Backbone:
């Protein structure tokens, strides 16, 4: 078997946002800000403003193509490296857009989700079984929310 599995894909799945989407974000944000100011809160409205601005800017970003690699030492996604000693288990989703979900030990980010769209998922599974246990996992809620936004 190959000692490395290498493929390229987009860093995230981009979906076009309509002007209505942006209007919705800002109408909701301004409504919440007005409510909080009326209630006497000054700090939280600033945070809401920053979050709405950040979401709007991020929504216009186009994904870059990055290189993914699975080798004998760990998993590499662009600049991020995940040595096997820091990983607990993995799961490969069985839907039309297969993804590798990795459970990370002792980390602020408990899971990493990697697209397997441009590689052989059976080869990835076979390779990872030599290093990690296979354990069914659901896509983290934070990842689902990020995809939606």
Residues:
């Amino acid at each position: 078997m190959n000692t490395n599995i290498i493929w390229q894909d987009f860093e995230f799945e981009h979906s076009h946002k309509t002007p209505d989407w942006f209007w919705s974000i800002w109408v909701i944000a301004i409504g919440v800000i007005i409510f909080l100011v009326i209630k006497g809160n000054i700090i939280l409205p600033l945070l809401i403003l920053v979050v709405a601005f950040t979401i709007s800017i991020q929504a216009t970003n186009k994904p870059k193509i990055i290189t993914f690699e699975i080798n004998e030492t760990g998993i590499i996604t662009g600049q991020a490296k995940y040595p096997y000693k820091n990983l607990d288990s993995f799961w490969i989703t069985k839907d039309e857009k297969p993804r590798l979900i990795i459970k990370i030990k002792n980390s602020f980010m408990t899971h990493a989700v990697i697209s397997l769209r441009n590689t052989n998922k059976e080869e990835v599974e076979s390779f990872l079984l030599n290093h990690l246990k296979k354990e069914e996992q659901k896509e983290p809620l934070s990842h689902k929310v990020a995809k939606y936004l």
